[in-house]
Amino acid sequence: MGSIRRLAVADVDNTLARGYYIWKFAKYLAEKDYFRPESIKEMLDISHEYMDEGASRMDYETFARRWVQLFGRGIKGIERRRIEGLGKQYVSSHGGEIFGGAGELIAFLNGEGFTTLALSASPADIVLPFAEAVGIRKTLATTYRADGRGVYTGKVGRTNVVGTKADALGKFMTQRHLDRKILKESAGFGDSPHDVSFLSIVGYPYAINPDDELRRVAEANGWDITDSPSGALKLVKARLAQDKT
After folding, report:
1. Residue 226 phi, psi (nearest 5)
2. What is the pTM (predicted TM-score) of this model?
3. Residue 76 is assigned to a structural domain of this protein
4. Residue 1 within any structural domain of the chain
5. CA-CA 20 to 30 A from 201: which of 21, 30, 92, 119?
6. In a domain? residue 81
7. 78 found inside a domain
8. How many separate domains does the chain show?
9. 188 in helix, strand or coil?
10. Where do the H-state alpha helices sit in the chain?
């Protein structure tokens, strides 16, 4: 089973950091002429379509899948090392987007023997430097294919979180030969219905700054609810202290 005894799985966007990194990073790259303008327009159009409250509103997984695909098209023809470097630059210059208390929460979980894992559909080029900034030790995010020269082809890679996050987490565990039993001792943190699938299978689920739909699910299941990573830290400390008595 390896050295991982229990996991602390965290969504990133609007859970530990403000907004959607995939969108913010796409705009940042476009401003520097490293992202196709037509892909920005298409991403914006899809966003408007998703936000439409009409009967034909698309589901979140379809929305996320299309955004992930469009991001890939946007960076087609750009060197991977260039995008990776700009990802580090973005996180370094936009630290204010990381919610207060996020680093403290992750540091506490690491210290308590949890293996922290960022689980996000956003590009690994931005999720990896974010994870490094807050101290998260493992990441599971969307990768994109590059050719032999290290240039992005526009295609989504084999590692991605499009679909249910529980499925992505399951693959992560299978690849590392982890026993599913550790999930009973694991924690999860999310803010939206897209996080329900993995929050439902961990022993310590926390809804951080949840939207209305996740709040209803959390209340129905008796999950802890808080408005910030700092609040989650207090809840986790109380829960672990209770378990030790």
Report:
1. -150, 165
2. 0.93
3. yes
4. no
5. 21
6. yes
7. yes
8. 1
9. strand
10. 21-31, 37-51, 60-74, 80-93, 102-111, 124-134, 165-175, 196-199, 212-221, 229-244
